[in-house]
Amino acid sequence: MSESEEKIIEIDNVYYEYPEGIQALRGVTNYVLRGEIVAIMGENGAGKTTLIKHFNGLLKPTRGRIKVKDKDTRETSVAELSRIVGIVFQNPDHQLFAETVFDEVAFPLRNFGFPEDAIENRVKWALNILELYQYRDNSPFMLSVGERKRLAIASVLAYDPEVIVLDEPTAGQDYLQKEKISEIIKLLKLMGKTIVLVTHDVEFVTMYVQRIIVMSQGKIIAEGPPHRVLTDYNVIRRGNLLPPQLVRISRALYGKSLLDRYDYLSVEDLSREIISKMREANGGTSSI
Amino acid sequence: MEALRAFKTIKKDSPYDRLDPRTRFFLSTVLALLAIYSSRLDTQLIVLTCVLSLSFMAKRVRVILRGLYGSLFLLVLIFTLNFVFTPNLQGAIYALVMTLRFATLITSFALFFNSTSPEEIGIALEGVGVPRDFSLLINMSFRFVPTLANDIQIVSDALRSRGLELEKGRLYNRIKNYVYLLVPLIIFEVRRSMMIAEALEARGYGLDVKPTRLVSLKFTWKDYLAIGLALLGTFLLYSFGFL
Amino acid sequence: MREKLVYLRDVSYRYPDSETQTLQDINFDGYRDEIVLLIGPSGCGKSTLARIFNGLIPNFYGGQLQGEIDIAGYDPRKTPTAKFAKTVGFVFQNPENQLFFNTVERELAFGLENLGVPPAEIRKKTDQVLREYGIEELRQRSPFELSSGQQQKVALASVMIMEPQILILDEPTANLDPFSALKMLGLIAKKTREHRMLTILIEHRLEIALQFATRVVVMNEGQIIADGPPLETVLKTDYIVGAPPMVQLSKKLQSSGFPINIDKLVPEAMALEIIRKLSKGGLDERKRREDNRDR
């Protein structure tokens, strides 16, 4: 297997049952390739968050196994796995406790045993990237909602895990915050990180993601590139998602044979098609 | 864990369930008090038998026995601790009395909590004159226990993902690490309680009107009968010298 | 003549211990039969404004509230929050924090109990609402066991049972998946029409919420910067609030000389318009060629 095809996470027929008896994962098999951006989508309760908690060992499969960089998660501690897979959970308020923003980001570094001077450098670096350096001596609780979210990401980025998992990064975020998160994801990709996004934001996912895994009721029901998965209405329905708006428009146009395909995910592409068709229909003139 | 499960609420169709929750509480209390008051072995056996008979009438014998089984460790501990100081027949009897007393306390109240939802506890409290604020507090405490348990799990997951070691290592260090959970948890729950308070007011709580109640309690002949029998039983035990 | 239910003139507000004004120069009129979508970046003051409508500000939060305010005849500075409950319903973002009891039935009854409604009437209304919202089989269930979509439905029902004239919803679909969010917002729109309310909805997911709005109000840094018809207002402020893809598409088409008239902000409606334009254009083009041939 070539370097670019390395499976950094392998999921092998995983079952997980919660102590109260709920079967959250029912035979999931898949993988995450090094360097890819993959999204896991599906309805609430489909098992998405349960699955990602297996990536750093918070949960161990009741059947089957998960390998992270060839380490079996059942035999490796959470701390050790977290060094490789950093998870940014949905609500940053569940983890903030430090007196300063600096200490908050330094916390995992200290836990992992980094030397103090390395910590200083890494924290500075991470805060700069997330545009939080000016708050380094402030209390984390003084930051706005969007800033706290960035702080959670900085805290994971600082110890440089190879895989970064973001659990619902755009939930409850406004437009400007979402733009910022997009930029961060682009940057992480440039840094060579592997990114896993758990989300049900279909519009967000069309822009950055190379592969989508759709889950429903503990199983994977579909997998593939966005233009294939997000145009499959059967899959979308089962995952309790909505098709992206542009797909809905192109589907209607395709139905009237005005387009040859309906997997349009970008405004540029679709508008170009429609405008050229409009121009044709008008014999080259521009307005009706 | 099994012992705690006996305290969870399950609704059943039995004469016991048809009693007013206040009556059920009264019965459990009477049995508990009898057990506490008497130091005689035969009385303890009588009282415990009463609890089991009541469980039978409530169709909950298996649940109660499972609860007892779950507390076996505790019961054995109580017996041993008491027997160790006076290791003779006298001591054994005394230790047995202590153990049975404890068993009665657990089972009589497990029976009550197993059949009485937090809702009913709230109504019962209001029925005996407890102010609404307090009964609401009790009700909501029950309601939010699973939520709180969930939050603890979430906070510990988040911190463990950041390298906090809660599984391995020396006990002292692990306990020290659990302290890290407290700050985010407390702040989170305080915020949560603010949001709950907001929502309560937005729903009209605290209006200067006398609040009504959808469901209200009413004593029936069954309740009077049960209370009467309990008092009669106590009187008989007393007059025959069992107490 | 539309019935005005809410009137705010030159309203400003500052939280206690805060050095900055959270709201300033707020002018807003709200009418019956409206669904106002209130949007803006985090921190713009929309949640604060929303809480003026049911008296939480200033009663619960304190602070300084100034200006002329009339909410269905009440002034929040002179009326306690609980008194607003009969007229203004408020649905919060997190279902967990607004469901207090162990059964759905009690949750529904609670608001009416607080208002001192006689038990027989509470019973009647509870049965009716359980039917109306299709949650009869959930009557004795604990809200904790329900899905988040069902929880928010119960939260909405327990507010609507009090028959408010004004309904405020602060990001009610934040925790829901897209399909459940769509259903929830559809339900809210339906109830607004049925009960002829003024509904003020705070939402970030414009691609789902915009289609239900009759009016959009945009806030930024404590002020209202735009207030008008949905499409026009979002186009005007898209650099702050972000336009959903179909709105971006319409903007592109417009700037290339092909304006599309969308009255219902749903992708399918826009597609229909495009189809119509293309067919008509095709018709015109064929006619033009025929005319040329005939000449």
Automatic annotation (TrEMBL), chain A:
Record's keyword terms, sorted: ATP-binding, Cell membrane, Membrane, Nucleotide-binding, Translocase, Transport
Domain ABC transporter: 9-242
Localisation: Cell membrane
Principal cellular location given in the protein's record: membrane
Molecular function (Gene Ontology), one example: ATPase-coupled transmembrane transporter activity
Membrane topology reported for the UniProt record: Peripheral membrane protein
Signal sequence coordinates: none
Record keyword ATP-binding present: yes
Gene Ontology, cellular component aspect: ATP-binding cassette (ABC) transporter complex
PROSITE patterns (UniProt xref): ABC_TRANSPORTER_1 (PS00211), ABC_TRANSPORTER_2 (PS50893)
SUPFAM superfamilies, per database record: P-loop containing nucleoside triphosphate hydrolases (SSF52540)
Family as reported in the entry's similarity comment: Belongs to the ABC transporter superfamily.
Function: Probably part of an ABC transporter complex. Responsible for energy coupling to the transport system.
Entry protein name: ABC transporter ATP-binding protein
UniProtKB/TrEMBL annotation, chain B:
Topology of the protein relative to the lipid bilayer: Multi-pass membrane protein
GO CC terms of this entry: plasma membrane
Keywords, alphabetical: Membrane, Transmembrane, Transmembrane helix
Organism: Thermofilum adornatum
Pfam family membership, one: CbiQ
Name of this chain's protein: Energy-coupling factor transporter transmembrane protein EcfT
Keyword Membrane: yes
Transmembrane segments: 68-85, 91-113, 178-197, 224-242
Subcellular location: Membrane
Record-linked CDD domains: EcfT
Family matches, as PANTHER family: PROTEIN ABCI12, CHLOROPLASTIC
Automatic annotation (TrEMBL), chain C:
CDD domains registered for this protein in UniProt: ABC_cobalt_CbiO_domain1
Molecular function per GO: ATP binding; ATP hydrolysis activity; ATPase-coupled transmembrane transporter activity
Lineage of source species: Archaea, Thermoproteota, Thermoprotei, Thermofilales, Thermofilaceae
Name recorded for this polypeptide: ABC transporter ATP-binding protein
Role of this protein: Probably part of an ABC transporter complex. Responsible for energy coupling to the transport system.
Principal localisation: membrane
PANTHER family: ENERGY-COUPLING FACTOR TRANSPORTER ATP-BINDING PROTEIN ECFA1, HEAVY METAL TRANSPORTER
Location of the ABC transporter domain: 6-246
Membrane disposition: Peripheral membrane protein
Keywords: ATP-binding, Cell membrane, Membrane, Nucleotide-binding, Translocase, Transport
Pfam families per UniProt: ABC_tran (PF00005)
GO annotations of cellular component type: ATP-binding cassette (ABC) transporter complex
Keyword Metal-binding part of the UniProt annotation: no
InterPro entries xref list: AAA+_ATPase, ABC_transporter-like_ATP-bd, ABC_transporter-like_CS, ABC_transpr_CbiO/EcfA_su, ECF_ABC_transporter_ATP-bd, P-loop_NTPase
Subcellular location, record wording: Cell membrane
Homology family: Belongs to the ABC transporter superfamily.
